[in-house]
C-alpha cells in the first residue's frame, strides 16, 4: 500500500456559465495535515464538495482515488461510509438537542426493538468527548456550550463514524485564540493516531504552525503544493501563490492627521440582556479622535461587540449606564435612529445575520439606513436611490453585474462593501467596524483597508474591532485591549506588539479590575 | 451600463411574475373553451362583483405577509365591521355614510388592538390573529344579537351593486366606461414611458424598444377589451373603481414610500432592519392598523353586496386572501411579494371558482382543486428558487 491516502486527478467542475474547477490535482499522504488555501471563490469549497459527494459522481470530470482505489461517491452518506467526513464552516448542530444526541444524530445507537439506547449513547459520547478533550456532560444542550466546544463536538461526531480522512472547512474562523490553540493541538494528536486531515484555512500563521504540506488554489486551478518543512515555504510565498502577485504591503500606507476628539464614552456599564445581575461591560471609558483609527483588541467573549452594540442604540444588553459625548457634548444614543442621527454608524461582525437583507438587491441594501435622505414626506425618490447605489458601487469597486442584483449572491468581500456603502451613505462622523475583514480574501481585505484610510483622511473617526492582531497593528493609530468586559490597556501603535497586546487581553479578572 | 434586454431575459429576470400571469391566461383560456358563457360581458362583470372583497383583503394581507406576519382574523373582522354598519344604519336608522365610517373606525380599532399585541408586546401574529378570529366572531354575534340584519337599501346597497353608466350615453355600449378605461390605459402608457426614460437616464438596463411597445399595446388591448365587455353589460361597477384606486395607492405605498421599504426590510431581515435604524415596532403596528382598515372596507363592500349583515359572514375569507398572496409569489418567510402579484393570485382563485361554478362543479370539487392549485403554485416557486440558487 502506498503512503498516499487520497489522490484527486484532473478534477474539472463546471456550473452553468462558470468553470469553478479546472484540471485540479490534489495528493494527500497518509497521516498528514494538508492545508488548502486560496482566495474566496478560488474553488476550495467546491473541491471539497466534489470529494465528499455533495456534488455526486458524474457531475464533474476527473478521478478520485482513495487508498489507490477509484471511488465514485453519489452522496455524503457514501463518502462517510468510506471514512471521508467533512465538517463545514457553518456547524450543523441542533441547538436544543444534547451533545450526545447531536453526536449520534442520524446514526443513533439502537437497542432492543429499534429504540434508542440512551445509556449506550451517553457512554459512547463521553468516551469520544474524552478523546477530543471536551469536558462537558453528554446531556448538556449544545446551545449552552460555546462555538469552540461545538467544533469539538463536530470532530467527536466525525470520530464516531470511524473517520480516515477528516476535512475541515475553516475550523478556527469563529474561534478565539485559546480555542483555536486547543483545536490545532487536537488535530496534531489525531494525526499521531493516524487520522489524515485536510484543512481549508485563511489564517496563514495557523497553516505555518500546523500543516505538513499546503496546496494553493487560485481561480479554480492548483498552483503548487508546498512542503512546509522546506525553508522557502514562507507566508509570503503562499500569499504570492494565492493572489498571483506580490503583496509587499499587506496594509496600505497612511499619513495620520489626528484632529479633535470626536467621541468619548465614560464609565460605560452594561448588564446581560437575560441574566439581569450579570455585568458584561464594567466601567469602560475610551475615546476616538477625528482622523484616527482606534483598534479594539480582545478575545472572544471579552465584550468587544457587546460594548459597541450597547453604545449603538442600546442594541445589546439592559441596565446600561454611562455617558456618551460627541465633540464634547453629551448625546442621547438610546435608539438606533438617534445614534445614526448623531453621526454614529456600526457595521456588524455578522453581515449575513445582522447586516444585510440577503433576498433584496444591492440598491435597497445600500439605502437601508439612509432612506431619510432620499425621501420627502415619506416618499422615496427611487431614481436618486439608484444613482446613490451606483455611485457607491463605483466608488468602492463592488463587483456585481448590476445594483439590482440580490446581495445574497455576492461574495463575502463584496457583501462587506455593500455594508460599508450603507453606513457611508449615512455620512457618519464615527464609524465602528466590527470584524470588517472576517471571512474575506486577501485582495478584498486590502481594498477594505484602503476604504478605511480614505474615511479617516476625510476627517472621520474609525473604530475597528478585530481578532487578527497583525491587522490591528497594521491599520490602527491606537489600540485598546478588552478582557472580561473591562478595558485593560491602551497603547499607541508604535508601542504595541502582538505579545504586549496578548498579555493585556489575557489579563485575569483580578488584574482586569485593577 | 446602459443596455437592453431581449424577451427571454425579460421573462427569466421576473420568472415569478410572468409565471403566474401565464397561469392566469391559461386558466382563462381553459374555461372559455370549456364553457361558452365564461367570457361573456355579464359573467366578467360577475367575477369582479363576486371577488372584489377578497382582492381588497389580499391587498392588506400581502403587506402583512411581506412583513413576515400572517393575519387569520380578517374573515371575522369583515363580519364585525359589516355588522357595525348594519347596526348603525339599519337598526338605528342613521345615514348610510355614518354606517360606512363606523365600520371603518371599528376596523382601524381592531387593527390597533392586534398591532399592539404583535408590535409592542411581541406575541407572534399567528397567535394574536387566531385569538382575534375568535374574539371578532364572538363580538359579531353579540352586536347582531345572533340574528341577521337587512336590508341596507339605497346608497349603501349601491356601493357593491351599483354601476356608473349612461353618463355619456351610447347605444348598447356605455361610452363613459370606455372613456375611463381609455384614460387608464393612456395613464399607464405615459407612466411606463416616463419610467423607461428615467431608467435610461440613470444608466439602467431596459427592455428593447419594440418589446416595450408590444407590452404596452398588449396590456392596453386586454384592458380595453375587458372595458368593452363591461360597457356592453351594465357599465363600470363601483367596486371596480374602488379596487382600482386601492391597487394604485397600495402599489405606490409598497414600492415608493419609506413605510413600504421598511416593511420589506423587516420581513427580509429583522435584525438588520433594527440595526439600520428602522422603527420596527411602529412599522409592525401600522401594518396591522392598515389591515384593519382594509378589512373594514371589505366589510362594507361585502355587507353591501349581501344587502345585510349575517353573524356568519366572511367565513374563511382569510384563507382565500392568504392563498391569493402565496399564489401571487409571496414568500412564507417574508420580505418578498407585490400587490400586483397578490391581485393576479386573487384573480386566479376568482376565475377558477367562477369557472367551476359555471361548469356546475360541486363545492367539494372546487375546494379540492383550489387547494391543489395553491400547493402547485408554491411548489413551482420553491422549485424555481432552488434552481436559481445553484
Greatest interface by residues involved: A-B, 37 and 32 residues
Largest sheet of chain B: 2 strands, parallel
CATH domain fold name of the largest domain in chain A: Rossmann fold
Q: For the record, what CATH class of chain B applies?
A: Mainly Alpha
Biggest sheet layout of chain A:
6 strands, mixed
Global mean pLDDT of chain A: 87
Q: Please identify the structural class of chain B as seen in this structure.
A: mainly alpha
Question: Tally of extended strands of chain A?
Answer: 22
What is the chain-wise order of helices and strands of chain B? EHHHHHHHEHEHEHHHHHHH
What strand line-up does the widest sheet of chain B have? 1-3
Q: Proportion of β residues of chain B?
A: under 5%
Would you kindly provide a written description of the structure presented here, covering whatever features stand out?
The complex is a heterodimer of chains A (514) and B (390). Chain A has 514 residues and is of the alpha/beta class. Chain A folds into two domains: 240 residues, P-loop containing nucleotide triphosphate hydrolases (Rossmann fold), CATH 3.40.50.300; 253 residues, Rossmann fold (3-Layer(aba) Sandwich), CATH 3.40.50.300. Helices cover 34% and strands 26% of the residues of chain A. Chain A contains 19 helices and 22 strands. In chain A, the strands form five sheets. Chain A has a six-stranded mixed beta sheet, with helices on both faces. In chain A, a hairpin with a 2-residue loop joins strand 9 and strand 10. Chain A starts with a strand and ends with a helix. The two termini of chain B are 26 Å apart. Chain B has a single domain, classed as ABC transporter involved in vitamin B12 uptake, BtuC. Chain B is globular and about 60 Å long. The longest helix of chain B has 27 residues. Helices cover 76% and strands 2% of the residues of chain B. The mean pLDDT of chain B is 90. In chain B, helix 3 crosses helix 15. Chain B is mainly alpha-helical and 390 residues long. Chain B is built from 16 helices and four strands.
Amino acid at each position: 500500500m502506498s503512503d498516499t491516502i487520497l489522490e484527486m486527478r484532473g478534477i474539472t467542475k463546471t456550473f452553468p456559465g462558470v468553470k469553478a474547477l479546472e484540471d485540479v490535482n490534489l495528493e494527500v499522504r497518509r497521516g498528514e495535515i494538508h492545508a488548502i488555501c486560496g482566495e474566496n471563490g478560488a474553488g476550495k469549497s467546491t473541491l471539497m464538495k466534489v470529494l465528499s459527494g455533495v456534488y455526486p459522481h458524474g457531475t464533474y470530470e476527473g478521478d478520485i482515488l482513495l487508498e489507490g482505489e477509484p471511488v465514485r461517491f453519489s452522496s455524503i452518506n457514501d463518502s462517510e461510509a468510506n471514512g471521508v467526513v467533512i465538517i463545514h464552516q457553518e456547524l450543523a448542530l441542533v441547538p436544543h438537542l444534547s451533545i450526545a444526541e447531536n453526536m449520534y444524530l442520524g446514526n443513533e445507537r439502537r437497542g432492543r426493538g429499534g429504540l434508542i439506547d440512551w445509556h449506550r449513547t451517553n457512554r459512547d459520547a463521553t468516551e469520544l468527548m474524552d478523546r477530543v478533550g471536551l469536558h462537558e456532560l453528554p446531556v448538556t444542550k449544545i446551545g449552552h456550550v460555546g462555538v469552540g466546544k461545538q467544533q469539538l463536538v463536530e470532530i467527536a461526531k466525525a470520530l464516531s463514524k470511524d473517520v480516515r480522512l477528516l476535512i475541515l472547512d475553516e475550523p478556527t474562523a469563529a474561534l478565539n485564540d485559546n480555542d483555536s490553540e486547543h483545536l490545532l493541538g487536537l488535530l496534531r494528536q489525531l494525526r499521531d493516531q493516524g487520522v489524515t486531515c485536510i484543512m481549508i484555512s485563511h489564517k496563514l500563521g495557523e497553516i505555518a504552525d500546523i500543516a505538513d504540506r499546503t496546496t494553493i488554489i487560485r481561480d479554480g486551478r492548483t498552483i503548487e503544493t508546498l512542503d512546509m518543512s522546506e525553508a522557502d515555504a514562507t507566508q509570503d510565498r503562499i500569499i504570492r501563490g494565492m493572489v498571483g502577485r506580490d503583496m509587499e504591503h499587506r496594509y496600505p500606507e497612511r499619513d495620520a492627521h489626528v484632529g479633535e476628539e470626536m467621541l468619548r464614552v465614560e464609565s460605560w456599564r452594561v448588564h446581560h440582556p437575560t441574566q439581569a445581575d450579570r455585568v458584561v461591560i464594567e466601567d469602560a471609558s475610551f475615546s476616538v479622535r477625528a482622523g484616527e483609527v482606534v483598534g479594539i483588541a480582545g478575545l472572544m467573549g471579552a465584550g468587544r461587540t457587546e460594548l459597541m452594540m450597547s453604545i449603538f442604540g442600546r442594541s445589546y444588553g439592559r441596565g446600561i449606564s454611562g455617558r456618551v459625548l460627541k465633540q464634547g457634548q453629551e448625546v442621547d444614543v438610546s435608539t438606533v435612529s438617534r445614534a445614526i442621527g448623531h453621526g454614529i454608524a456600526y457595521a456588524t461582525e455578522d453581515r449575513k445575520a445582522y447586516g444585510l437583507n440577503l433576498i433584496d438587491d444591492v440598491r435597497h441594501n445600500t439605502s437601508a439606513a439612509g432612506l431619510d435622505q432620499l425621501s420627502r414626506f415619506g416618499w422615496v425618490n427611487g431614481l436618486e436611490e439608484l444613482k446613490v447605489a451606483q455611485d457607491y458601487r463605483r466608488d468602492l469597486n463592488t463587483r456585481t453585474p448590476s445594483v439590482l442584483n440580490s446581495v445574497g449572491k455576492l461574495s463575502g468581500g463584496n457583501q462587506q462593501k455593500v455594508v460599508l456603502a450603507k453606513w457611508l451613505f449615512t455620512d457618519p462622523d464615527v464609524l465602528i467596524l466590527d470584524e470588517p475583514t472576517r471571512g474575506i480574501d486577501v485582495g478584498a481585505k486590502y481594498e477594505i483597508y484602503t476604504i478605511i484610510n480614505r474615511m479617516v483622511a476625510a476627517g472621520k473617526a474609525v473604530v475597528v474591532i478585530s481578532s487578527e492582531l497583525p491587522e490591528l497593528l497594521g491599520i490602527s493609530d491606537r489600540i485598546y485591549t478588552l478582557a472580561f468586559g473591562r478595558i485593560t490597556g491602551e497603547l499607541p501603535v508604535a508601542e504595541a506588539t502582538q505579545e504586549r497586546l496578548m498579555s493585556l487581553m489575557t489579563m485575569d479578572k483580578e488584574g482586569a479590575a485593577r | 451600463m446602459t443596455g437592453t434586454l431581449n424577451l427571454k431575459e425579460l421573462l427569466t429576470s421576473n420568472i415569478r411574475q410572468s409565471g403566474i400571469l401565464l397561469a392566469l391566461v391559461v386558466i382563462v383560456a381553459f374555461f372559455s373553451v370549456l364553457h361558452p358563457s365564461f367570457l361573456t360581458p355579464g359573467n366578467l362583470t360577475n367575477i369582479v362583483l363576486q371577488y372584489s372583497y377578497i382582492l381588497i383583503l389580499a391587498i392588506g394581507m400581502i403587506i402583512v405577509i411581506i412583513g413576515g406576519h400572517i393575519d387569520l382574523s380578517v374573515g371575522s373582522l369583515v363580519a364585525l365591521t359589516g355588522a357595525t354598519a348594519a347596526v348603525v344604519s339599519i337598526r338605528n336608522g342613521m345615514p348610510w355614510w355614518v354606517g360606512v365610517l363606523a365600520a371603518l373606525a371599528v376596523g382601524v380599532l381592531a387593527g390597533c388592538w392586534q398591532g399592539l399585541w404583535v408590535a409592542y408586546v411581541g406575541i407572534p401574529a399567528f397567535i394574536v390573529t387566531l385569538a382575534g378570529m375568535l374574539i371578532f366572531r364572538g363580538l359579531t354575534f353579540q352586536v347582531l344579537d345572533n340574528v341577521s340584519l337587512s336590508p341596507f337599501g339605497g346608497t349603501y346597497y349601491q356601493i357593491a351593486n351599483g354601476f356608473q353608466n349612461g353618463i355619456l350615453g351610447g347605444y348598447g355600449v356605455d361610452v363613459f366606461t370606455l372613456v375611463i378605461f381609455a384614460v387608464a390605459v393612456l395613464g399607464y402608457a405615459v407612466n411606463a414611458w416616463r419610467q423607461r426614460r428615467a431608467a435610461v437616464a440613470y444608466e439602467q438596463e431596459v427592455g428593447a424598444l419594440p418589446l416595450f411597445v408590444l407590452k404596452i399595446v398588449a396590456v392596453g388591448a386586454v384592458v380595453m377589451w375587458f372595458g368593452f365587455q363591461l360597457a356592453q353589460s351594465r357599465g363600470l361597477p363601483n367596486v371596480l373603481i374602488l379596487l382600482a384606486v386601492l391597487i394604485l395607492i397600495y402599489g405606490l405605498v409598497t414600492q415608493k414610500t419609506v413605510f413600504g421599504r421598511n416593511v420589506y426590510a423587516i420581513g427580509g431581515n429583522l435584525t438588520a432592519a433594527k440595526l439600520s435604524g428602522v422603527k420596527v415596532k411602529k412599522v409592525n403596528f401600522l401594518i396591522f392598523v392598515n389591515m384593519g382598515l382594509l378589512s373594514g372596507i371589505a366589510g362594507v363592500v361585502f355587507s353591501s353586496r349581501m344587502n345585510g349583515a349575517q353573524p356568519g359572514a366572511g367565513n374563511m375569507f382569510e384563507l382565500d386572501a392568504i392563498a391569493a398572496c402565496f399564489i401571487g409569489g409571496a414568500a412564507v418567510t417574508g420580505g418578498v411579494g407585490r400587490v400586483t402579484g397578490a391581485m393576479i393570485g386573487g384573480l386566479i382563485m376568482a376565475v377558477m371558482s367562477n369557472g367551476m361554478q359555471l361548469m356546475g362543479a360541486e363545492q367539494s370539487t372546487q375546494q379540492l382543486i383550489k387547494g391543489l392549485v395553491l400547493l402547485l403554485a408554491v411548489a413551482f416557486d420553491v422549485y424555481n428558487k432552488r434552481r436559481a440558487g445553484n
